[in-house]
Amino acid sequence: NKHHLILPQHINLRIGILSFSPVCDLPTQLSMPLVPPNLNLSLIHSTSSQILYSALSGQSNQYSKQFGSSSASIDTESLEEKKQHAKQLGQNLPGNDNQGNELTQDDPNQEKEKSKQPTKIATPAPTNQKILILQTNFLTHVTRLLNRQQLQELEIVDIFYLDALNDIQLPPLKKQQKKKKNTDQVTQEATPPSTQAPPYQNIYFICQPDLRLLKHVLDLVHKLREKERSEKRPSKIRLFLYIVPRITFIVKKVLSESEYGLNDIVLRELPIDLLSLDSDLLSMELNGCYKQCHLDGDFSSLYFVARSIMKLQSIYGVIPHVRAKGDHSVAITKMIQRMQRLAGSEKLDMPSSIHSLILLDRAVDLITPFRTQLNYEGLIDEVFGIENGLFEPRFKPCIPSGKKMVVLDFADRIFDEIRNFNIGFVGSRLKERAKQIGAWMNKKDSLRNATVSEIANYTRLLPQISEDKTNLEMHINIVQKLTSIISEREFRKRMESEQDAMTLSSRDRDSCLKYVEECIFKQEPLSKVLRILCLVSIVNNGLSVKKYQNLRSEILQSYGIEVSIALNNLHEMGLFTYYDSPTVRDINWKQIKSTFDLIHEAITDEFDLHQLFGSYAPLSVKLISTMASSGLQPSLSLLPGAQAQHDQKAKMRTNDKVCLVYFIGGVTRAEMSAIRCLNLQRGAEEPLYVIATTNVINGYDFVRPAFSGDQLKRDLQTMSAGEFHV
Fold first, then answer.
1. DSSP characters for 437-486?
2. Least enclosed by CB within 10 Å: which of 31, 101, 165, 622?
3. Distances, alpha carbon 639 to alpha carbons 360, 363, 592, 634, in Å
4. Stretch among 259-268, 282-291, 320-329, 661-670 having the lowest mean pLDDT
5. Helix or strand (DSSP H, E) at 724
6. Percent of the chain beyond pLDDT 90?
7. Is residue 621 a contact partner of residue 604, using CB atoms and an 8 Å limit?
8. What is the pTM for the complete model shown?
9. What is the mean pLDDT of the chain?
10. Which residues lie closer than 8 Å to 509 by C-beta, 6 or more apart?
């Protein structure tokens, strides 16, 4: 059956999950092989945490020098302004400790002199409290990099989303001081501490060098300053703008041309290149990277990638073998070589922990992002959405603990075991895990005659087992909901249309386009419609001119004339186009899928890469496997883009072959699962893969950057209006 799908078996484990008979003890290791100790990604996390803490504590010069900021931070604040703010905040500048105050507590004579002076009512010292206004995808990472104690030490009183913020509320004014009559004694009104000093004196904006976000920051600053002027406030709130990961020419130009720009905002750089999102995943969180390079002509993200690789080499040593596929990947390779020559060999002269680096341009494989992911983690992202590693359930019951949001990563042992497999294989794994937890919980009845060490061991593991039990119930609820959704007719039609798009048969292609027209007439979310159209266009090297124009006119009639911006952008990026268009990407799909063995109909092995998309193995992972084992083979020339290979001398720290795979333009969760499956099945001579990427994406995230601001809001509202993405 050409429409063969791996669909889950119906399971019902919510009731009586502890009633199974003992089978075996819980495994002591996670299902995923751990990254070698010499490649501990927590170093990246600790480095990023230190950079962020230093920035928010005002030590910008220190972290810029320490972590190799490529361009000096622009601090437009004068020395007099710094002294004035330091005086307002009750802080002492370096080298000015105790100036103007010669009294010390250890001198009794000075104590007598002090007692003769008029006494003043003690007032709470001014604080250096601040609020953070962050780009949406940074909030989760800030809370990961800084714990609660560090946030309290930095005196952060609140955090806001930059994208959703329309105005900034000013803190209440200080109450005025009063003088008593006939005395020189100065007193203040007896008011609560919260009204003695403003709740905050500093506002920190943190965002990427994105033009839309910069204009939004300037709008907020303009409203804030106008409020201060109308209320005649004696002192202004200090404003800081931190650009991640680097200040660009566009940022300087936009701020210099604005009314409240470099003269009113302290502009600084926050050189956080990579964030450790999982035990084997590093991400730069650069949204819209593909659109910036292929539509806007902005290649700054390529420089950011090259700089992040240089930082990795400064921590883990020089990578001896570098292979690149795709025009942008080759450009990054040249940047790295130039940076190494400028840095000098002595700065990178250390044993290497990484054996090889594979740079893969997203433009080489544009098919995989538009396919629906069927692995457990990917399907959650497709149906419910995973934002910055957080899952927010939209159905009940889901999370037994009552939490509104859950972090999905390797810390959840149940999730880590089932995340990389097709939803059809998850049920049996959850059932086996339920038996193991039930057997362990039933051991408490046999502890009456146990030794002290056995009781201590059981007590030590009990919190982890209780957490696994709670997580197991949550994942059973999620699997049941996913099962009911993907068993519906609408989901099956969507999967069939995707498979029809990849057969190259004119009959199947017409069937797929008919389904697209039905979605247009029903006014399904625009991102869903364009996602399938892009898949058809890429596989077939475009559509016929007549069909392209008909579909375009139908979309405009159904969704409005403003959608033409998105259609034009997708055409310029070569995603939705017609035959012989200058933007079309010519590929021989028939030869590619046979050469790399991309399509299998019948799947029985849960480790088979084809199970992640139903019957399609991700082309990108097949390329990675080929490049890691055999280098640049002639078969790679079937795919668009240049290729390059660079070898250099380096001492290896261990015999472990660790291969860093870097996706430029984004990676899907199913592709990450495919790479992890390669790790699970690797032989003694095969490398262990670690993943790095500009950002984590799905098909919706890939087309939405082409939308205008208003159209993007409408598409997101349409998605959230329904119960689920599909």
1. HHHHHGGGGG-TT--HHHHHHHHHHHHHHHHHHHHHHHHHHHHHHHHHHH
2. 101
3. 12, 9, 8, 10
4. 259-268
5. none
6. 38
7. no
8. 0.83
9. 79
10. 500, 501, 503, 536, 540
